[in-house]
Write a structure and sequence with these properties.
Residues 7-130 form the PhnB-like domain. This protein is α+β, with helices and mostly antiparallel strands. The protein is built from two helices and eight strands. The relative contact order is 0.20.
């Protein structure tokens, strides 16, 4: 799998409804995981969407989630650019360049779902999410 670049939307508690709406609009296959599935300690967040991915037959990929518990949701901070794939060297290279001179909010390291993941804001104020998955097969 090569690297993917796509929008990642944040929602204020209605990610499930929004992503199901986009599935009806664009068609395709929708996959969702909740915070509870990954052992979130806050019971109020257990049913909230931690990650959703819609892959359409037209070749679009749209990702989204409910804004993380404990962080303020403000319209304007609800869009990130996601880089993902299994080419660890390529993605770590992008991470190094994007985070240089910027602000790292989640260091690029192994996460509870098994992938390496990090979030940073580049020096121009754009939020980037990098996810390195394990190569398949």
């Amino acid at each position: 799998m090569g690297s993917l670049l796509n929008p990642y939307l944040s929602f204020d508690g209605d990610a499930r409804q929004a992503m199901e709406f986009y599935e009806r609009v664009f068609g395709g296959t929708l996959m969702m995981n909740t915070y509870g599935e990954f052992g979130a300690p806050d019971p109020a967040a257990a049913d909230k969407v931690m990650h959703a991915r819609l892959d359409t037959s037209g070749g679009f990929t749209l990702m989204g989630a409910d804004h993380p518990p404990g962080e303020d949701y403000r319209p304007g901070n609800n869009l990130s650019v996601s880089l993902s794939g299994d080419d660890a060297d390529e993605l770590r290279g992008y991470w190094a360049k994007l985070s240089e001179g910027g602000n790292v909010s989640v260091p690029l390291e192994k996460q509870m779902w098994g992938d390496e993941f990090g979030t940073c804001q580049d020096r121009f104020g754009v939020t980037w999410m990098v996810n390195i998955s394990q190569p398949q097969g």
